[in-house]
Amino acid sequence: MTSVNPVKTAPLLPLFRYEEDIEVPRPLPVAGTLPLATETLQQVAAIAPTQPFNVVPAQQAHPMVSLPSWQSVLTAVDPVVIFHQTDQLPQPIPGKPEPVLLLIDRAKTDWDDNSYFAVDVDGQLALGWYPEQPEMTIVGKVVVVMRPKKVFDENNLHEPWQMDD
User: Angle CA(119)–CA(115)–CA(31) in degrees, nearest 5?
Assistant: First the structure.
């Protein structure tokens, strides 16, 4: 009696591909949290991620954060992120105060009355909307204000049987 040992085949590789541009995150340098010296914002080095996976060298001097590839994020020429609070914005957001991420494009320094800007006020960074060209130096345009992801029940994240609901 002869027995044949079945030949094992290798499993499939766990292969994935980004299907939509919005899935590809854009890494951005973080300058800090307001209050912040204008010089601190200006000293943050621009980054140039390497394609096709947006790799950023590990020796960056500033922390990094990744944002989805929304149109306003992709079109930012010299983007820097700062953090602030919803109740301290030029137009406070109603509700319980929470931190927000602000994407500032330092390349956009031309005033227009449909935008908010980061300006230099005696060496400190300030945010504002100006109906006319401000006297202060514009250091960048606010292109995104983003709230943190709202997690309704953090305990559910640790229960695998509840994650698919």
Answer: 45
Note the Cα 139 to chain centre separation in Å: 18
| 142 close to 117: Cβ distance less than 8 angstroms | yes
Interatomic CA distance for residues 81 and 145, integer angstroms: 10
Look up the pTM and report it. 0.82
Q: Cis before residue 35, ω within 30 degrees of 0?
A: yes
The two three-digit tokens of residue 108, written as one number: 């956009």
With contact defined as beta carbons under 8 Å apart, do 101 and 145 qualify?
yes
Q: Residue 58 class from Cβ within 10 Å (0-12 exposed, 13-18 middle, 19+ buried)? A: exposed
CATH code for 24-162?
Answer: 2.10.109
Q: What is the dihedral of CA 4, 7, 8, 9, to 10 degrees?
A: -150
Domain boundaries, the chain: 24-162
Mean pLDDT of successive 10-residue stretches along the chain, which has 165 residues: 82 84 85 96 90 80 89 95 96 94 97 97 97 96 94 64 52
Residue with tokens 């499993």, as numbered in its chain? 11
